[in-house]
Every structure is written in structure tokens, then in C-alpha cells.
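Hi R.,

Here's the chain you asked about this morning:
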Amino acid sequence: MNNAELDRSQPLGLDIGTSRIVVARSVGGKPQYEAQLNAFVTLPHSRLTESLLRGEGVFYEVQGREIVVAGNDAQKFAEILHVETRRPMLNGVINPREEHALTVIRSILLKLIGRDGGQTQKVTFSVPAPPIGGEASIAYHEASCRQVLTELGYEAQPIVEGLAVILGEMESSNFTGIAISCGSGLSNVCLAVLSLPVVSFSIPKAGDFIDAQAALATGEMAIRLRVLKEQSFELDGFSGDRVQNAITVYYDDMIRSLVEALREGLAASGRLPKLDRPIPLVLTGGSTMPRGFRQRFEAALRPEHLPVELSEIRLSSEPLYSTARGALLASLC
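And the predicted structure, written out as C-alpha cells:
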């Protein structure tokens, strides 16, 4: 589906994540998704290079003396050139040290959703929850994303990522439960009752933490570990492969930190509701995709005593799309 074929009257949901930007649209009453990596590489500009990229249909823009290759094409070029992709976002928010950050995000959004066709189309976009024990420029990040979307002609409204997951995953429990979204920059947690957020926070351990630490331990490039983790890695214990073992070590570190933060975050809240029944917990996000993640999380959670009773711990059937689907539902409401 290209931009010319889109229904410009329909609301949209956007997951603006550290690793990917995902748009959700309602088509025939069902959500449909499109995604681009939130990444880029730069090449020295020359007319010949630009002509060749254009001929190959590569997604790029010229910025001064550089060609900025963005989105899914960025990873292809990074692998060819044996370099790391650059990220417009760091730890869930716009990277303040990356000069191309807003330009790249705007380019990716323009590719995914185009400009509004003059009907003031509504877009709900995800933002992270405040991190525990640290500060993040969430206000700047939220305002910048809203400004970009407004300049493209949209009526833009933010939604906290964990709440978006509640909306996208918990219709069967009347939007009551705990959502944990493990992305690249942050892991977001939200407890909601009847779609009202009660506890919401994030921790700065997620996919990028695993990639960076495992890369330091093995001498491999983080981009290679990221691809391996998404394509073939399984959390099934230690093996004779040092790279697999390093990824496993830092997955366990992330899971332990997440479980501890969940226990402490719920225990510290003075606003926990009195629930008359157990509630579900859903795990989602790209970092939950390796086989064995749910079992590893359950094993880590078992010794902990949460102030709420859980009815189930389940993994989303579409972990890359939960946030965008919930943002779309918020736009439709």
C-alpha cells in the first residue's frame, strides 16, 4: 500500500521506538502495520552515488555533504560497510548528541504516513514512561515528535507506551492488568485498571543494553548481535558458543532488573487498587521474541511477592505491533 492509496480520513497509531517506528491503520476493521528501522548511516555525497541509490530505490536524503540512508535500508548498508548504524533515539528518547536525529525521524514518518490530506487526521503516538532512578528528556522528546507530526498536518496526541500495550492487548480483561514492553532503549511497565493507568515507569535496560554489553564481552559488533538475537537466538541455557552465552548473561541481567523494578514499583505505590480478582500480565516488545523469554521471566518472578495476584503471564502474539495497535485504538476512541 503506498501513500497515494491511503484513506486520509482514518486515524493512525504510531509506535515511535528506539529500534523501529511502526504505524497501525484500520483497514476493513482490522489493524494493518508498516514499519521502518529507526536508524541511519551516512555516506559521502557525490552525484554518482546519489544516482546509483536512486536507481536502486534506496531510502535516502541529502544533508549538506552527506547522503543519509535511513530506515530498513540503513541496516543493509551497515552490514555491507561493516559499520554500526546510527540511531536518532537513545534510551527511548531523541538522542541529544545526534545532529541528524529529528531529520531522520521526520523522514521516516513522512515515508510511513506521508502528509495529511487536509482532513486533520488524528495520530496517537507512543512516549516512554519516566525512568526509575534517572532522568530522561521525555518532555523534549514528546514535544519534538508532536511538532514533527503537526508540521506534517496531523492532529497529534501522545500516549504512554505501557498504557498503549494495555489497550492493544487486554480487551478481554476490560483493559485491566500489567503490561511490560521490552523494546530496545527502555523496558516500560504499566498497571492499569479499566484502561486507567495506576503505576507507570520504565527502566533503562532493554535490547540495546544486551547488545552493547554482549558486544563488549565478545568483541563483536552490536549490530551483528542485534541481528542474531532477532533471527535465531534462544534463551535455552548456556552452550559452547561464547556469543550466545554472553547474550544469555545480559538477558538474565535485564530480566532480574525488570522483576525487581516491578516488585519495588508496585510496593512503593500508594495508589494500588483493591482488586477482586487476579489480573493478567502480558510481555511484549522486540526483546521478548527469543524462544524461552516468558519461561525465564516466570522463573525470575516466582520467588518475588507482588502486592497483586496474577491470573496468567503470557507473551503477545505480535510483540512488534502491540504498542502501535493500542495507539490506534486510542486514536479511534
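DSSP finds ten helices and 15 strands in the chain.

Let me know if you need anything else.
M.
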